[in-house]
Structures are given as structure tokens and as C-alpha cells.
Amino acid sequence: MTYEFDLFVIGAGSGGIAAARRAAAHGATVGIAENDRLGGTCVNRGCVPKKLMVYASRFPDVFQDAQGYGWSETHATLDWQQMISKVNAEVTRLNGVYERMLDTSNVQVIQGRAQLLDAHTIAIGDRKVTADKILIAVGAAPVRPNIPGIERALVSDALFELPKQPQRVVLLGGGYIASEFACMLHGLGTEVIQVIRKDKILRGFDEDLRTQIQTAMIQHGIRIIPNAEVTQIIQSEAGVTVTIHQDGAAELILADVVSLAALGRRPNTDYLGLENTLVEMAQGAIVVDRHHRTAETNIYAVGDCTSKIQLTPVAINEGRVLADTLFGGTPRLMHYDNIPTAIFTTPEAATVGLTEAEAIAQYGSDRIKVFQSRFRSMYYTLAGKDEKTLMKLVVDQETDKVLGAHMVGDHAAEIIQGIAISLKMGATKANFDATVGIHPSAAEEFVTMR
Ligand code: NDP
Fold first, then answer.
1. Which CATH number is 5-142+266-327 given?
2. Is residue 203 within 6 Å of ligand 1 at its C-beta?
């Protein structure tokens, strides 16, 4: 049987594009379908516009800190519309970059929503294509839980298009997105109320890191309402009224325009035609084996539509591993240990490896030693602020291996990326100790902890 394509990819986001380009570089005939702009969530509605707005949100602190260094007071104001249009212009530029990259890689882009008709046939609008192998890389979209009026709440995607700066926002959720948006909006000058159902944000991260971020966010002026349940959202002329229940008492909070729900994401598998194949789902995600293969043996899936980690670099790596395995003659597996990640809150946080609790659960508390440093970095001395940096190493005393590194503080993402290499290589605490620090820096604390 001959097919039009060796590989057809559904979804031109981070994972899909990476796999398509790598497969084409190995000589495969590759097509890719996308029903939206190229680049997926990361470029269009996630990492990229978010990070640009995080940068924008941090200027007021810098203006203020500068006075501690002798600069005169700055009276700067934000032109929200200009910020949004500049961010969107950058996203459009990146869409063009992806288009050219796919073109020069000889990947055929077909615009439209793809639907599987059988294990080898895909319909995109009026067109039907056939492929030997198919990769599903359709990503995920925000979940809207069953709360009366939840349809009134925006999801994070919409924030990048808001024509006017919201004065007061109620944010629902305590995960990455809600916490990052809370800090970003607060920095931009919006009043932020974040409602979480447990006592602390960022479940799953190291406890000290969670506490440090949450404490700092509250100190900065964000109102976090813990152990609370949102029971209703009502739209009125005055704005959006969110009803919250906490400790048996109800509170009504009026937000001027926006309540933003960031309550997790679920795979975009609706209308994909999976029922016409043997592909299986579990808890809303496509089930794949360690080779990214679904129950239909010629169909694969990578990225946020599977139940693996929902991070752009993970999807990219999965896509490349798959393409090298299928078309490059270099079969390999994606390894999910020691994947670093950052939370672009203010303060920023980043982490790699095991949390203290995970390490104790895996190795027992007798084997685990924690090294921790909490200090005010030099930058804040003249700025006159009590901002604290937290650094933490989790070490297995038996092997001396560093199992986890966690940081809250300026440039945490940049610093932990380097530390992640050492953890991937199996670095010991003795290796950290033998490394000469860069002075004066905050990062040197990672090699001087005793
Ligand atoms: P997360 O899974 O990180 O967080 C979801 C949050 O919603 C949790 O705080 C959870 O509470 C809460 N929640 C879920 N259901 C309900 C409910 N019914 N009522 C009240 N609260 C609820 O999801 P996000 O949407 O924030 O992010 C999605 C994914 O995107 C993340 O997993 C992450 O991988 C990725 N991402 C990565 C970023 C980065 O790398 N910097 C940035 C943004 C997103 P609880 O903790 O109590 O369960």
C-alpha cells in the first residue's frame, strides 16, 4: 500500500512542528494540519505572550528599586493597548517564522481541522490525505468545571486580547497559570484576588517553594483566598460577581470585568475522529506507550494531548525522539526524570528533580539531607526591600547524589536551567561543593551551602 505521506501530523504546535521538521530532515514526506495559527498554545496563547507580559509587569519594581540606587522618581504609566498590540505583533512575527521554517523543511502545511477517517486516512475540510504513520499533537485547552456561570469567566487565552486593562480580577485556581497571571496582572497595576480550593498554591511543588512564593505574593499585595470554593459567577452591568464560600461563610466579590478561570487543561480530542481508529483514551488523555505509540500501531501522540507532562520542551523532545526513532535510524526513548520547570510568578521560581517530600517517600527520611539557604540578594540591599531568595538542595546521603534543586528568586529559571544539566549528569553534593562560585551572584549560593 502506498500513501501520500510517510508521516502526517495533526496539530502544528511545539510537539507537532518539532516532529514534522525532524522527520522531513530524515527524508520523510511530511504533511501537517493546523486549524489555527502556527505555533500552538506556547506561541499563540501561552509561554510567549505570557512571558512578554511578565517582563512588562516587572518594570514598576525596577523603577522603584532604581531610586535606592540614586535615580530620581519615575512617573511611568502603562499603555495597555500598546502593550497588547506589541505582544500580538511579536506572536504574528513568530507565526511567520514557523511558516518559513516548515516551508524550508519541505513540510506541507494544510490549513483546516483534521479528522481521522480510519487509521491511515485524514480529512481536512474537503481534502483527504493518506499517511503511513500519523502523529496526533493537538494539545490541550482550558477546563471549565461545572460551576454555575463559569461560561462568564474568561480563560487565560482571552487575556492577551483584552482591549482595556482590568481594574480588578478574580482568578480561579492555584496552578501555574493562575499564579503566573496573578503576579503579572498585579505587576501591571490590576487588583488581584486569587481563589484557591486548598491552603496553598502550586500543588506538587516543593513545600518550601510553595510557601515562599505564596508569602511573597501576599506581601506584594495579592489577596489569596485559601480553602475556598467558587459557587457562582454572575454577569451584571457593574461587572462580574463571584460568589465564594470559605469556612461556611459566603462572600461576594465584584470584579470590574474579568474573572479568569485557570483550573487545568484537557486534551483537544473532540471531533478528531478517534472513534474511527483503535486509539484509546484514559481520563480524557490519549494513551501512549513509552514509544509514544497509541493502541492503533501506526498512530502516535505527543505533547499535552497525552497524559505526560504538559510543558513545551517536553512536547518538542518527544516529537524529535519519535522522528529520530521512526525515520532517523536512531531509536531512542524520552526520559522524564529531572525535567526542569519554571514558574514565572514574581518572585520567579524554578525547580528540577525531586521535592523534599518525594525524596523522603522514595528513599526514606534517614537517607535524605536538605541544604537550604534563605537570604536577601545584594540587589535588594540598596533597593531597600526585604525580598528573600530561597535555594534548596535535596541530597541522598548514601550516594551523595543531588536529587532535587529548588529556587525562588530573581532569575530562578536561568539559574536552574544550568543546575539541571548537573542533575542530569548525576552530580553529587561533593561536585557542587568543589565548584567555584561566581562572586558576587545569587547563584553562587548553590555551591556554598553547608
Ligand atoms: P494546573 O494543573 O497547574 O493547576 C490547576 C489548578 O486548578 C490547581 O490549583 C487546582 O487545584 C485547581 N482546580 C482544578 N479544578 C478545580 C475546581 N473544580 N475548583 C477549584 N480549583 C480547581 O493547571 P493550569 O491550568 O494552571 O496549567 C495547565 C498546565 O499548563 C500546567 O500543568 C503546566 O504544565 C502548563 N503550564 C506551564 C507553565 C510553565 O512552564 N511556566 C505556565 C503555564 C502553564 P488543586 O491544586 O487543589 O488541585
1. 3.50.50.60
2. yes
